[in-house]
Amino acid sequence: PAVPAPDDFLAVDAALTAEETAIRDTVRDFAARELLPGVADWFDAGTIPDPRALAKAFGELGLFGMHLSGYGCAGASATAYGVACRELEAVDSGLRSFVSVQGSLAMAAIHKYGSEEQKTSWLPRMAAGEVIGCFGLTEPDSGSDPGSMRTRARRDGSDWILDGTKMWITNGSVADVAVVWAATDDGIRGFLVPTDAPGFTANTVHRKLSLRASITSELVLDGVRLPGTALLPGATGLGAPLSCLNEARFGIVWGVVGAARTCYLAALDYAGTRVQFGRPIAGFQLTQRKLADMVVDVNQAGLTAARLGRLKDAGQCHHTQVSFGKFANVAAAQRVAAAARSIHGANGITLEYPVLRHLLNLETVATYEGTEEVHALSIGQAVTGLSAFR
Ligand code: FAD
């Protein structure tokens, strides 16, 4: 056999179907052509310049709700969706987050828990990228413990009145519809809130040092009146938003493999050309140790993602296995990005190279969709039978 390829050392992609390979190549080409040239400037500016155009482009590629079926969604395999996330996050975690929030959080909530009317009215437009959605679960005082949320929804005749504040909501300021989770007398329920509803405001969070090529917002709901049809009828209790998070985490398991791969390949390239003490730094044993650790991390993470993809395609993926993947792969990507940054020396702290941008993004990726600690506790509970959450 030939020497393995540096970026796919265990030949994981050889197990992709022809359709999955075609999706990989399409997304990779699009990302290289349309996203990579601008991403450092977007990160520098702390925004995505034209989120509507980006949504349209992602919609045309079939990325939104890619593995959902019907209602204008592509109906691809979970593995295909994962591969697409990997190729997007190879450019930037913020761009993969755009797709995760739209498809795996907002659309998945409607697809799983919406009425037939809600599905037909929202999903095709969201799949096409004509309508942008966001997902409001976190609050200023309620993060890892979403059951402590203070946002309330109360009945007024057949209407609902929503009051509360959501925080750290991706795409909140550019969304047309917000999936908002609120406590009611019957437990936690989900609502589809048009963002032009009176009493709804979204304020963009500034001065972030991570996920800068992504819009993050505070949502304020001040007596927002909604018709009874705004309630997601199938979503009762905290399990509903948590099951959506599980969908998005699956994309993260794959996505961070892309971020790690980019950092590793950048380091490999840099180490091969940067000469100190009369030879390329790639020739020093300490650098080779870093590169060996990186290639192991990138490819083991890739294998984990591929295995979870096949389990999910078979309908056999337990949420604690997704926790395993998020926990293991985000940490692996953080190690790789940190090592890649060190190999780049001073150049590594600039936006001329992708490494610190990815490392900073991964701080968010390790935090959202369940922190590293929360997933450690989830795995700990799965293997011991004992909950250490509270
Ligand atoms: P906390 O829950 O306050 O945690 C603080 C620390 O305490 C962490 O280290 C945590 O692990 C630890 N901790 C908490 N509980 C325990 C425990 N039982 N045992 C041990 N340690 C514990 N949310 C949304 O709803 N929608 C979005 O679109 C969205 N997008 C985001 C985008 C960005 C850029 C960021 C940064 C966040 C986003 N979030 C979003 C919010 C994210 O999901 C929360 O930040 C996350 O759930 C953690 O909550 P927290 O920040 O309140 O931290």
Give the structure's gist in a few sentences.
With 390 residues, the protein is α+β, with helices and mostly antiparallel strands. Helix content is 50%, strand content 16%.
Task: Please explain how this structure is put together.
With 390 residues, this protein is α+β, with helices and mostly antiparallel strands. It is built from 10 helices and 10 strands. It has a 4-stranded mixed beta sheet with strand order 1-4-5-8. Helix 6 packs antiparallel against helix 7, helix 6 (239-273) packs parallel to helix 8 and helix 8 packs antiparallel against helix 9. The longest helix has 35 residues, at 239-273. The protein is globular and about 80 Å long. The protein starts with 17 loop residues before the first helix and ends in a 6-residue tail after the last helix. The mean pLDDT is 98. This is glutaryl-CoA dehydrogenase (ETF). Pathway: Amino-acid metabolism; lysine degradation; Amino-acid metabolism; tryptophan metabolism. Keywords: FAD, Flavoprotein, Oxidoreductase, Transit peptide. Its cofactor is FAD.
The main sheet comes to: 4 strands, mixed
Q: Give the H and E element order.
A: HHHHHEEEEEEEEHEEHHHH
Bound ligands, each once: flavin-adenine dinucleotide
Q: Give, in spatial order, the strands making up the sheet with the most strands.
A: 1-4-5-8
Q: What is the rounded distance between the termini?
A: 52 Å
The total beta strand count reads 10
Task: Point out poorly predicted stretches.
Answer: none
Tally of alpha and pi helices: 10
Beta-strand level of the residues, as a percent range? 15-25%
Q: Overall 3D geometry?
A: globular
Helix percentage: 40-55%
Radius of gyration: 21 Å
Structural class: alpha+beta
Mean pLDDT: 98
